[in-house]
Amino acid sequence: MSRARARLADRFRRIFAIEAAAGILQWDQAVWMPRGGAELRGRELATLARIAHDLLADPVVGEWLAEAEADGDADPWVRADLREMRRRHLRARAVDPALVERLQEATTRAELVWREARARSDFALFAPRLAEVVDLVRERARQLGTALGLAPYDALLDGYQPGLGDAEVTRLFAPLARHLPHLVEDALARRREPLRPAREFPPEAQRRLARELVARLGFDFDHGRLDESTHPFCGGAPPDVRMTARYDPRDPLSGIMAVIHETGHALYSQGLPRDRLGLPVGEDRGIAVHESQSLLMEMKLARSRPFLHWLAGRLEAHFGPEPAFAPDNLVRLVQRVERGCIRVDADELTYPLHVILRWRLERALLAGELAVSELPAAWREGMAELLGVVPPDDRRGVLQDIHWSLGAFGYFPCYTVGALLAARLFAAMRRDLADLDEDLAEGRFERILAWLRRRVHARAARDTWTELVREATGGPLDVDAFFHQLHERYGVHRVDAAEGRP
Amino acid sequence: MSRARARLADRFRRIFAIEAAAGILQWDQAVWMPRGGAELRGRELATLARIAHDLLADPVVGEWLAEAEADGDADPWVRADLREMRRRHLRARAVDPALVERLQEATTRAELVWREARARSDFALFAPRLAEVVDLVRERARQLGTALGLAPYDALLDGYQPGLGDAEVTRLFAPLARHLPHLVEDALARRREPLRPAREFPPEAQRRLARELVARLGFDFDHGRLDESTHPFCGGAPPDVRMTARYDPRDPLSGIMAVIHETGHALYSQGLPRDRLGLPVGEDRGIAVHESQSLLMEMKLARSRPFLHWLAGRLEAHFGPEPAFAPDNLVRLVQRVERGCIRVDADELTYPLHVILRWRLERALLAGELAVSELPAAWREGMAELLGVVPPDDRRGVLQDIHWSLGAFGYFPCYTVGALLAARLFAAMRRDLADLDEDLAEGRFERILAWLRRRVHARAARDTWTELVREATGGPLDVDAFFHQLHERYGVHRVDAAEGRP
Questions:
Q1: Measured between CB atoms, which of B22, B43, B240 is closest to A34?
Q2: Is A24 on the interface with B (CB under 8 A)?
Q3: Which of A171, A190, A207, B462 has the fewest CB atoms found within 10 Å of its own CB?
Q4: Does A202 reach chain B within 8 Å, measured CB to CB?
Q5: DSSP label at residue A498
Q6: How do residues A445-491 score in pLDDT, each as one tens digit?
């Protein structure tokens, strides 16, 4: 290894160690931290973020990179590592430090105000803070775009899913926006009302079931933990993966599906190649890919009929007999489609419509085509058009998500791009693994995990987004598999192929 | 505030934030971390330690200090803050970075080997690793001493209890070594064998009792947690204090006393002045002072007759009737004196003798008067002389403590200096608080905590060691109060005053 590459590896491993430390601190903040620790914790995380940023933006990193790139190493892992290092270094240097600081202050304020505004359903309270954030994010996107040679919104997308551009998002979202509203109508017309459980399910029993399921899916408890927090998440310092669940005594199914979702994330993190740990090429390939792993696990596998038939037995073993959890009723409960106002409660048919609304609005905000003051009306209009419902208040409308208050513009599309990738991966997995349904009907995930390890996890960030999609699924991303699987599961009408194809 | 002082405050607050982050990571490591997380965690902590060190050793800190010192601010807090900053900066710059690195590697190796050697009771396995550490620590002490104008061993003591020198330790330990062996004999002759509990006590009930006691002592659960780990400790990122307990079903009393001991540490940490948080002057005054707080709480207050009579009622409330926990028997159980081989199990009479042995041996090792190979024999000899017992093997002898493997020479004396300070503080508290025994007999700690806050906690590191002892207790440290309290509690003979006085 050349001197420059050795120095780069050392530098990036240090940055990784700092980010890993921050990951554990964030986990602790959500799971254990007493409220009196909040202020100091904020200072700890800000200090670590600044140190990591300075190590990354350091001009000497650019010099080492130039030297290492000139070596022209042919190993694809090395080339990819240098590509990722270059990308991060460019992004870290692209934005004026004064702007970074102003944005940090503005988002800290905005998040606080957002919490209060949401509680009081008072958009006017939030509007000036959001306007501040939008202005600063617009400037940040401009500076990033200039440095990376990307359009401003593409530069934001690149921060979450490197390689994903708005042209691709637009191509994929157009057929979804066109067809999904009809498919939702179709599904609702076919829906058979499930029997709902009428009793409570002790958290202790839910906890035991969750641990059993998570272990079955392949989670390695020697490299991670399952704890509890208000909002389930998967974080920590991979491969030491810390995921959390939430056990609502009245709704065990949502808790179980959430924990399976997080396990999809966790398995990806635990499956990254250990020998690349700490190098940029050894990290995950981006938010949309991460989301494809959680959605494949939850939406495609765990909400499938064969798995639910198996799960019914485990529910009975842990909770005793419950008519609502009889296999066929369980399928109706878990596969039910509903027009709701809340994104995080949405099913796989309606979820993309929530995302498309936010994607349209955030692009319009950044382009200056929509004023922050016009947002609530635009939100209600969009909900009526896409989902056929209008939120009764802003708390359940435009104020429901934290993302914009944090300055996370360009994040929302990753959820639905991830869902489309999950559908493609599921189709490819079915082709490769004969009798996949039998595995699911027996609660066996060994072949599934091995397939994911090979096709996605072990590749880490070696491939670009486009390469990874093609290598893992056999072609470029489109909406066909997604529509096809909706047809299969919900009996909704077929959507012509060739839409959303590149 | 001058520009230099503002920059110093900013720099030291950053260092504090990094150290606070490390505190939480170390807590997580002991309490929650899966074993697969160990390697990455080691890298995280090493990275943070190096960053904090570099920020502290940075030459610009010396320039700011010179500028700020020249301002000649009269505020005692400011002067003390600059004094502590100067001390830390000097220590960080004193040691050759290559030596720091070699010592880091040597102690990492030595600790690993020590664990195995202890498990196998095989000193020969550990000896070469320990010899390496001793050589490097000797050189480190020399470099530190040169920079600080201190004798080498004093420079090591200064790293744990700033301001404590070996002359003072020698003055204090001489009468202890002379009289304690006879007092132990005396106490054993007077001992009445207690009835021992013959059943098990569910950890769940112990946990509830521990939380109740900790809250009564004044622990603020909004700024801390009580969890569990193999070895109880108090850490975290004060004022977010994370302490741990261990609940042995067969020995609830040792767990309770340990948790009270840790609460003494925790109350000190939580009582440090919040408006100085992150500045060196706002931190604790050193290990011996910290130990005085835990030992005062455990040895002087919780093991006192009036408190134990109150505790008997709480034990019955949580565990049901138990003859061994009848008040007078409980006192005999908790105040029993025993000649043992293990330091951490020792009572307040024998503990200092364990410390004196280690202090003699570590000074001799560093001075080159004792070879590592001679250590086991010297240990046995010293145990026979001081404690009248000889450990049956090295596991229960020279291999029992982790300290030397970590390079922590100069630490042991702090335990016993802390015990002497606890005795002085207890005497002063009794003078100040009329009817203190009544508070203890009712399990009330409000006045006690307020007294400690005023005399010790709120002073943080404003006073030097010598000033703090004088201000808090009315005079220089001596052994009189310690001996007097042993006489009172155990009925052992009086030791003439005026010994160990400066």
A1: B240
A2: yes
A3: A190
A4: no
A5: T
A6: 999 999 999 999 999 999 999 999 999 999 999 999 999 999 999 99
**Is B225 an interface residue toward A (CB < 8 Å)?**
yes
Integer Cα distance of A413 and A432 in angstroms: 29
Residue in A closest to B40 by C-alpha:
A17
Question: B472, B451 in Cβ contact below 8 A?
Answer: no
Yes or no: say if A143 and A99 are a contact pair by the CB < 8 Å rule.
Answer: yes
Partners of A277 on chain B (C-beta within 8 Å) are: 40
Q: What is the pLDDT of residue A421?
A: 98
In whole angstroms, give the CA distance from residue B304 to residue B302.
5
* Token pair for B49: 């330690």
Nearest CA in chain A to B223: A36
Look at the alpha carbons of B329, B332, B338, B344 in this order and tell me if their dihedral is positive or negative. Answer: positive
What's the complex ipTM? 0.94
Q: Looking at residue B299, what DSSP letter applies? A: I
Give the CA distances from residue B397 to residues B28, B123, B376, in Å, rounded to whole numbers and listed in that order: 30, 10, 8
Q: Which amino acid is at A324?
A: A
* Cα(A352)–Cα(B488) distance, integer angstroms: 77
Q: Shortest CB distance from B222 goes to which of A35, A223, A239?
A: A35
Q: How many CB pairs under 8 A join A and B?
A: 105
> What does DSSP assign to residue B243?
E
Q: CA of A353 to nearest chain B CA: how many angstroms apart?
A: 40
Tokens 């009793």 correspond to A199
* First CA to last CA distance, chain B: 40
- The Cα B243–Cα B217 span in angstroms is 14
H and E: helices and strands count for chain B: 20, 3
Q: Which of A21, A223, A278 sits opposite B21 (nearest CB)?
A: A21
Please tell me whether the overall predicted TM-score, pTM, comes out greater than 0.80 for this model.
Answer: yes
Q: A404, A425, A394: which is closest to A125 by C-alpha?
A: A394
| Architecture of domain B203-335+414-490 in this structure | Orthogonal Bundle (1.10)
Measured between CB atoms, does A278 come within 8 Å of chain B?
yes
Instruction: Please count the residues of chain A.
Output: 502
User: Hey, how many other C-beta atoms are within 10 angstroms of the C-beta on B178?
Assistant: 12
Question: What pLDDT is recorded for position A502?
Answer: 72
Confidence band of B498 (pLDDT split at 50, 70, 90): low
Q: Which of A262, A322, A348, A362 is catalytic?
A: A262
Q: What is the mean pLDDT of residues A24-40?
A: 95
Helix intervals (H) in B335-476: 351-366, 375-386, 412-432, 436-441, 446-455, 465-473
CA distances (Å), origin B487, targets A414, B183, B473, B490, B494: 73, 9, 20, 6, 6
For chain A, the domains span 1-94, 166-192+343-412, 203-338+434-463
Q: Which of A19, A24, A244, A269 should be substituted to probe chain B, the one whose Cβ sees the most B Cβ atoms within 10 Å?
A: A24
Average pLDDT of the residues in B158-166: 98
For A182, the 3-state DSSP assignment is helix
Work out whether strand B224-228 and strand A224-228 pair parallel, antiparallel, or are unpaired: unpaired
Contacting residues of A for B278, CB less than 8 Å apart? 43
**Cα–Cα distance for residue pair A310/A445, rounded to 1 Å:** 13
- Pull the structure tokens for residue B119: 């498990």
**pLDDT (tens digit per residue) in B230-279:** 999 999 999 999 999 999 999 999 999 999 999 999 999 999 999 999 99
Interstrand relation of A240-245 and B240-245 (parallel, antiparallel or unpaired)? unpaired
The mean pLDDT of B402-417, rounded to a whole number, is 97
Average pLDDT over residues A2-23: 97
Give me the active site residues of B, please. Answer: 262
pLDDT in tens, A92-141: 999 999 999 999 999 989 999 999 999 999 999 999 999 999 999 999 99
Asked if B278 and A225 come within 8 Å (Cβ–Cβ), the reply is no
Q: What is the CA radius of gyration of chain B?
A: 23
